[in-house]
Amino acid sequence: MKKHYVALALSAGAAMHAHAQSTVTLYGIVDVGISYQTHTNPAGSSTWAMQQGNEGFLSGSRFGLTGKEDIGGGWYAGFTLENGFLANNGKLDQQGQLFGRQAFVKLGQQRYGELALGRQYTTANTMLYYVDPLGVGAAPTNSWQVFMTGQRYDNAVSYTGNYGPLQAIVEYAMGGIAGDTRARSSISAGLKYAQPSVTAIVDVQQTNDTQDRYARIYLAGVKVPAGPVDLYANYLHSDREAGFDSSNGGEDTASITSMASGSPTAAVAINRVFASHRRDDFFTVGAGWHIAPQWQLIGAGMYDRTLAQSFSGTRTTAYGVLDYSLSKRTDVYFAAAYERVTGGWAGLFGNTTTNAAAAGGAGLNGRNEQVSTFAGLRHRF
């Protein structure tokens, strides 16, 4: 009997030990605010609304589950399931997908790195996070560069390795089209170097649509701390073959990446399909100033020039954010942005056309300038 009780005790202890090595965490962000935008229709009218493009200015609302299990010898397994939702109306974000932000399983070892399979962020989006003043924003006025990089890959396999101050990510997304391994596939690689004095990144990426037309991007950026101020700069070059269409013919289902996006104030977004070869050169410079432990001031400028056959146009955004932390998890903020377009993008804001002249459609009939303000409340858990 004593041996039986000892065996039971040992078994219970082993079970408790095994349970202690496995964890599941619920986390999330809810970011909601009141926005005001000028020139939201061709007549130049203004709009008061909750959210901007159904997003908070700083963050997309989300909740997720992440788990990790120690399986011995330094090896571990885990998963992430992350849902995006629209806090102003309760609907699912990311084309209505349940776990549209992330959905993957992973296996890793501290020495050899980590392998992940499933829906994941593009390497460009991941690298931008480290060198963007907002860590890549959410509202259309401050995050439109991700319409060039794409935000997420479906059917992706990635490897992440950490080697001292260096982090390397290599990712391949399978197209899944019979008889054609290139169509609707993506391949990319990113490298980050991080030290207390500087963070620097580079990234290269190629995505092919269903017709094997390509979109290539090259990205580089830095973050430099200078006392209470963090300085940011990044450059993105995008090169798209004529007719490249990540949306499989019109609706963005994100089967390749979330590289096509509309806007509540523009029937034609700056990302739309071009009938000719298209090149974009995108620059961001900005700074984040920790005025006091609870106060932060963030400001940045974003500029893109688009060149194509018989087309030249620019878009410029300047924004500022004043953020106050009520606690470690909750902050309130006020944000303002000014945007201007020129050349072929003239008339972008508040237009009602269904395609841009560069794509063989009608000219844009909106306005060239737009001012946005936003008062928000954000809670993280």
From TrEMBL:
CDD domains reported in the protein's UniProt record: gram_neg_porins
Keyword Chaperone on entry: no
Stretch forming the signal peptide: 1-20
Membrane topology: Multi-pass membrane protein
Subcellular localization: Cell outer membrane
Subunit annotation: Homotrimer.
The protein's name: Porin
Organism: Paraburkholderia pallida
